[in-house]
Amino acid sequence: MNRHAVYFTGPRKAEVRQEPAPELRPGTVLVQSVYSAISPGTELMIYRGNAPDDLPADASITALTGGLSFPLKYGYAAVGNVISLGKGVDPSWEKQRVFAFNPHETRFLASPADLVRIPDGISWEEATFLANMETAVNFVHDGRPLLGELVVVIGQGVVGLLTTMLLRLFPLAGLVTLEPFPRRREVSLSIGADASLDPSTAGAPGEIIAALEKMGAIDRADLVYELSGSPDALNLALIATGACGRIIIGSWYGKKQATLDLGGRFHRSRIEIKSSQVSTVDPRLSGRWSKSRRLSIALEMLAKVSPAALVTHRFSITDATRAYELLDTHPDDAIQVLLDHRSPEGA
Questions:
Q1: How far is CA 157 from CA 49, 115, 177, 192, 290, in A?
Q2: pTM for this one?
């Protein structure tokens, strides 16, 4: 029995390889994939060769314990059916629909401890968003938005839009999003942003401040999320944040460097800048929050906000090369891209 798997072999080179499927081992299950979601942030950074190759892929995920140097398999949003059980596995896992933090492979082995059962009310498409929804939940936890605050989200890719969906559930005074691509701005407005502006224009700083003032700002935004993946956006975040405000950096810049203008109002503004990454829980919450509790909340949020409408493209896994080329060269056309593992050639 063979499987298809996506490999990154060099900058802007993705290959689909056929290889032997893994054999069952005691304590493991075999999963037949249905879909896997491409992360247009992290995966494109790896695809483009911008990820630091001296870092582990993700030490907190069993399937991603290797490094980031080429060649490598990467991905962390696979959904499928359990089709075989290894010795010692609880029979209740048989034929279960599951989510796994696993690379793009048509079949894979996993320990039940590394799988998440997909509830009946969540579709396959919605389930592919679980990893990014957990990231969005983590951003909200780290930012701690308060009733009546003004919030800005820079970047309306998949994670940015999911974060906007969650923030819209709060009784905020106003929610402004920034995104250069018109299609994503339209989606942002449709899911509840009060204003969605183009940050690439020369007048963007003034437009952001004016939008916040229209929503009642005395001194710009209380909370700003930088989720665009662009280090240049950090200076825009500083402009948008009021005195004593908070900036949450959820972007991973990889090898890209940030040049910050800290010589102006930042020096006297007591602005807090904090990194946020989903592999850990905010230490201030760790007494009562665990990663499993956060993940269960992310599942609940999938059912609540139904993000399947963010899926814009589906490709067979055997056509994955075209999927990455689309995201790389036409990010204005695509939001969430799925790889479909159900076609005969991808089985």
A1: 20, 26, 11, 15, 27
A2: 0.94
